[in-house]
Amino acid sequence: MTKYLISFPSGEMDVSPEDLPAVADAAHAVVREAKAAGVWVFGGGIDESVPPVMVAGDGTVTEGTYPQTARLEGGYTVLDVPSREAAEEWAAKIAVACRCAQELRAFQDDPES
């Protein structure tokens, strides 16, 4: 089994306020399906109202983030599935529910995690 990250930037989710409850219901249905299938690891959205900070090894906290991740936003799902094809199938289900294309990335195998 391999863990996959399925994600999308929040700006890609072009949904009217009236349609948002239906999108949430559809997304939650996919979450329930993934949990029932035993492939769900974690999912959620970045709280964009909370600014990111950098924490150094000595515990020093500073506002901001790495320049290349300054726009890290949106929704994220981590699934543990047997193949890339299975991950693509789940990503398609999430794309339908969220009404936008999903990025798919594989995590490197780490037996300690």
Report how far apart the termini are. Answer: 13 Å
Q: What are the secondary-structure elements, in order, as H or E?
A: EHEEEEHE
* Order of neighbouring strands in the sheet with most strands: 2-5-1-6
Q: Tell me the overall shape.
A: globular
Specify the biggest β-sheet. Answer: 4 strands, antiparallel
Give average pLDDT, whole number: 93
Rg (C-alpha, Å):
16 Å
SS summary, helix count? 2
Q: Got a strand count?
A: 6
Low-pLDDT parts are none
Q: Which percent range describes the beta-strand content?
A: 25-35%
Q: What structural category do the secondary elements indicate?
A: alpha+beta
* Percent in helix: 25-40%
Name the features.
single chain; 113 residues; alpha+beta; 4-stranded antiparallel β-sheet; two-stranded antiparallel sheet; 2 helices; 29% helix; globular
Topology:
Layout: E1 2-8, H1 20-37, E2 40-45, E3 53-55, E4 61-63, E5 75-81, H2 84-98, E6 103-106
Task: Explain what you see.
α1 packs antiparallel against α2. By secondary structure, this protein is α+β, with helices and mostly antiparallel strands. The strands form two sheets. Strands 2-5-1-6 form a four-stranded antiparallel β-sheet, covered by helices on one side. 29% of the residues lie in helices and 27% in strands. It starts with a strand and ends in a 7-residue tail after the last strand.
